[in-house]
Amino acid sequence: MLLIPDEVMCGMGRTGSLFACEQEGVSAGLICIARGLGAGYQPIGAVMVSQAIRDTLRAGTGFFQHGHTCIGHATACAAALAVRQQIEQRDLLANVRAMGKLLKDRLVQRFGDHPHIGDIRSRGLSMQAGLMCYPMGGTIDGQHGDHGLLAPPYIIDSSHVDEIVDKLGSAIDGSLAG
């Protein structure tokens, strides 16, 4: 069976490893990545293929049929390479893991017993499932519902983690006070 994880939002380190699927111990045939690849500086997307898929393609036509308007854009590729180099050279994944744990701990400390906050879930600095705010409990139709998205930069430090939690707390408390 061919596994193709969609790591457009969580790939390239957001969860504390280059790919979230690595943490589950699964081997993907193809991986779709995008946002983290350009780090917000340059739009880019990519599909990574395993050696087995590569060998299969080579044994067949030898051609990976795909394409979009801006395929192989030199500036986008240069930006992606620079982002990848910075992640490695600055050991940003270690910071993502450490600050992600701190952020979750501080969120649980601040909101763990909050009557209007449900489950606080995270992995690294990925808080997509994040704060489930009652009574809606999430987004049912993709547009309506109460939810929050926290996605701080990989270079965040503890003072900014505290600032995020303080400002989020003030915003939630202020909105509930009416």
TrEMBL record:
Any one cellular-component term (Gene Ontology): cytosol
Keyword Transferase: yes
Keyword field: Aminotransferase, Pyridoxal phosphate, Transferase
GO molecular function terms listed in the Swiss-Prot or TrEMBL record: pyridoxal phosphate binding; transaminase activity
Record-linked Pfam families: Aminotran_3
Gene3D superfamilies: Aspartate Aminotransferase, domain 1, Type I PLP-dependent aspartate aminotransferase-like (Major domain)
Domain of life: Bacteria
Family the UniProt entry places it in: Belongs to the class-III pyridoxal-phosphate-dependent aminotransferase family.
Name of protein: Aminotransferase class-III
The organism of origin for this protein: Janthinobacterium psychrotolerans
